[in-house]
Every structure is written in C-alpha cells, then in structure tokens.
Amino acid sequence: MICIFNSISLRKDSFKPLDENTARIFICGPTLYDFTHLGHARIFLTYDLMCRHLNQRGIPTDVLVNMTDINQNVFNKAALEGRDYREVAHFYANAFADDLSLLNIRSVSRLAYVSDFLESIKEHILKLLDDDFAYYANGNVYLDSSKLESYGNLSRQSQDQLLDHRLDIGPHKKNQTDIMLWNCSEEFDFTWDSKFGQGIPWWHIQDTAVAFENFGINYDIHGGARELLYPHHEAHLAQYKLLSKSNNPVGTWMHVGLVTVCGEKMSKSLGNVVWSKDLVRKHGQNLLRLYLFSSHYRSDIAYEEKVLVGMKSLLQKAELASLQTSGRTDNALSKLVEEFSAALDDDLDSPRAISVFEKICSMTISGSNLDARDFKRICDVLGLEI
Ligand SMILES: [Zn+2]
C-alpha cells in the first residue's frame, strides 16, 4: 500500500488514484523570469521520484505544471529589456524545460502557460460573481471569504490567525481575508481587457483555471513548496471547491520542504541562489539526486556543497556494483530490493530507500548475486543514469 502524508489530514493517507487508470498531479510551476534554482529543482525531483515509483507500482501518472507568465516580476524583466512579456516568458520556459531535461526529469507530461488560459480564468471569475461568491470593489474582483466554509482548514489556521495576514490590500475589500481574483486598481505594464475592467488575473485563480481546464472537477495530488500552503493553496482549494461543487476536489496535498543556505531560504532577493544547471554541470544529476533524496522531502535541507560532494562515495559504490550484477538475485538481497520499494511506499521515505540501496551495492560488491534487472529497476526509480 502506498501512503502519502496529506497536508489537509495531517497524516499519512493511503493513496489510490481517483481515476484508476492514472494519477493526475498538479505541481505549482515556475514564474517565468529566471532560471531554476536548487530549491525549485528539489520540488520537481521529489515529484519525479514519486512518479517513477508510482509507475513501477503500476500506476501511470499525468503531471501538469503551470508556468506563470502573468506576473509583475515577468513584466519588470520585460520592461527592463524592452521586450514583450511573452518573449521573456518563452525564454525562461525554454530554460525551464532544459533544466528539467538536465535533471533527467521525464515525468512532466503537460507544461501550461497561464496566459493561454485567460478566457477560462475570466469565465471562472464570472461564474463566481454570478453565484455571489465574488464581488466588485473599486474595479477589483474579490472572492468573499465570509461565504467560504472551512476556509483556513488546509493551512490549519483559525479565523484570528487568518486575520493576522495582510493580503491583497484594497480600499473596498469587505473582509481582510478576501482573495483577489482580478486586479484593475494597480498600474501594470501589461493588462487584459475583461468585463471587470482592464487589469490582470491574480495569482491564485490563474492556477485554478489551468488545473480545472486540464483535469476537470478533481485530481489526485497538488504539489509545491510548503511555503505555498497559505495563501496560495488555501485560496486555490476554496476556488476549486466552489467551481467544481465538490468538497474534496484534490485528493492529496503534498508539500516539499525548503532548501536553506546559512539559515535563510534560497531566494534571488537574498542573493544566495545556487542554480540547478550549474550544479548539474559541475557535479552531475546523479549526485544531485542522491544528495537531495538523502533527506526526506518534507524536511528542510540546509544546503552545503561539501555534503553534496560527499555523496560521491555512494555513487562510486553504485557504479562498481553495476559492473558486478548477474542474472539472479540472492534471497538476502531480494529482501532488500523489496525493502527499497517498501520505503518509498511509506510517504516516499527516500532516506531509508537510499540507505537500503547502499547496502545492496555493498553486498553486491562483496560477492552477493544481484540480478542486473533488479539493479536497473532501482536506478530507474531514483533516476540515476549508471
Ligand atoms: Zn500554484
């Protein structure tokens, strides 16, 4: 049985796709104004590992990643370079696809530009207005959080805690916790015409429309960094519930921990960014995977290059073991091969899987028999190219 820790139930829930044929997974994707850093790479590698494991367990996966091109950071970059926002977005979307391929990530089946979904974003906002869940205020459109049942449940916040956040501030908002859907009140370099006025669709409804158009009224897993839990995922869930008329449109909320550097989150604004393409070119994607998977996906990782380099001994062991595989697997090793998969069944316990993999390699080097096909299956799940 495969279990995944579900942020909404705060426990490991057994996982079975809603549609028995395929697990449909939405991952909050990049904002298209810069390259992929290690923190982003960790997110996509986590879901890649998840998908490879699900695939080996006989569950096909369909992974949708939205790419945010309607965003002030993208507009700023376009203004700085005297280009259209779309050109900037295309450039970084291509760079993102290159980064995925450098990382040997093959699980992403759909990449979607938010701007391709403008018509459905507008339709969804209109629907929310018609149903009286949204309202106009000073040209902006907001979702009325007072009409939402269980708002705050996903991020485990009480009404008082929700009120501590100052979000989407506008002069005519009814409630402080209301979520912006369309913004006409600020100046943007690029805007779109709509029945609500000239403006831009706000962040959360962008992802909701992309997911809804691709997956319909429900899907299996919503993934992303833990820091997106509030307000982004809380807002997305509220909108999705209203649009799908379902209380439980997303089966599992699966959140990945941060990558920190010297105690700070890795981010461009803090100037501590390590680009994923530089790491792959310098150390190879095998080493990067072994390093990241040695921590559980829900834990934060304090990045240190020397720890990454320290994974070389395991990689060398794996390379040596690959040269000594045979046509059958001894019983003791068979048990370990099963234990490897069982570790991943248990909320993607990759640190345990990696330690079992190391044992398997050591025993193979010491003369135990390991079937080359078993070795290859393990490498395929980990995404190692040995
Ligand atoms: Zn998102």
Structural description of this entry:
- The protein contains 14 helices and 14 strands.
- It is an alpha/beta fold.
- Strand 10 (219-225), helix 7 (229-244) and strand 11 (250-256) form a beta-alpha-beta unit.
- Helix 1 crosses helix 14 (372-382), helix 6 packs across helix 7 (229-244) and helix 12 (331-345) packs antiparallel against helix 13.
- The mean pLDDT is 95.
- Zinc ion binds next to loops.
Distinct compounds present? zinc ion
Shape: globular
Assembly context of the chains: single chain
Spell out the helices and strands N to C.
Answer: EEEHEHHEHEEHEEHEHEEEHHEHHHHH
At CATH level 3, the topology of the largest domain is Rossmann fold
In the sheet with the most strands, the strands line up as 5-4-3-10-11
The name of the CATH architecture of the largest domain is: 3-Layer(aba) Sandwich
Low-confidence stretches: none
Largest sheet, in brief, is: 5 strands, parallel
Short description:
The chain is α/β, with parallel strands linked by helices. The protein has helices at 38-56, 72-81, 85-102, 118-130, 159-163, 203-215, 229-244, 276-283, 285-293, 305-310, 312-323, 331-345, 350-365, 372-382; strands at 3-6, 11-14, 23-27, 61-67, 108-113, 134-137, 140-143, 179-183, 200-201, 219-225, 250-256, 259-261, 264-265, 301-302.
